[in-house]
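step: validate -> pass
step: tokenize input -> pass
step: predict -> running
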Amino acid sequence: LGAAPRRVAQRVFIPLLRPALAGGIGFAAAVSLGEFGASGFLARGRSSYTAPQAIFGLIGQPAAVLQGQAAALCVLLGVVIVALVVVIDKVRGSQIGSWL
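step: predict -> pass
step: emit ->
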């Protein structure tokens, strides 16, 4: 009814999205914690580390170099995941993910 787009976003869209964003963040945190526990259970020995365990171990160290390595490993893991999603989307065609 004549409001500026920014005001509409502040007064309408953002308040409507808050519950969905909170639920999504909570669900993502719960799933990631569950997967971290599963990977810890499967790779019990010190000779084999999964990427989440390596990231957790590097972040826990006080040295900035190790935290930088953890950030680089996070980026690498993200790139691999995005590449897998793109490949799966291409293989499946327009059935799933066509809205992206």
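step: describe -> The chain is about 75% helix and 0% strand.
step: cleanup -> pass
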